[in-house]
Amino acid sequence: MVKKCMICGEEAIYKIKDTPDYYCPECAEENFSDLDMLVKVEEEAQKLKNFLKEKMEDIVHTEEELDKMIVMKEKNEDVQDN
Ligand SMILES: [Zn+2]
Q1: Distance between CA atoms of 15 and 59, rounded to whole angstroms?
Q2: How far is Cα of residue 17 from the mean position of the Cα atoms in its chain?
């Protein structure tokens, strides 16, 4: 599951900081003269999120909840390593 551009539905590689708004390169350039306000979707973080989202899509409904789940998971893994 990849993030889709909120305008055209193509695969998004940019997002606006601190928002759930995603854009493909074409729409990002059309709508933002200054691409500095956009951040590149972090591929590794996104893969992890997508993986977890698939596993948890029945219980996690927002990106914010998902972030909390990831933090909890990381803490659990730390405990297991010790
Ligand atoms: Zn687009």
Answers
A1: 24
A2: 11
For the chain, the farthest-separated pair of C-alpha atoms sits apart, in whole angstroms, at: 50
Residue the block writes with tokens 């854009």: 23
**Ligand 1 mean position, distance from CA 9 (Å):** 6
Residue 18 CA, ligand 1 centroid: distance in Å: 19
Single pTM value for the model: 0.46
Q: Ligand 1: distance of its center to the CA of 75 in Å? A: 36
Q: What is the pLDDT of residues 13-52, one digit of tens each?
A: 888 877 889 999 899 989 887 777 777 766 556 776 777 7
Alpha helices in the chain (DSSP H): 25-31, 43-56, 63-81
- Radius of gyration for the alpha carbons in the chain, expressed in angstroms and rounded: 15
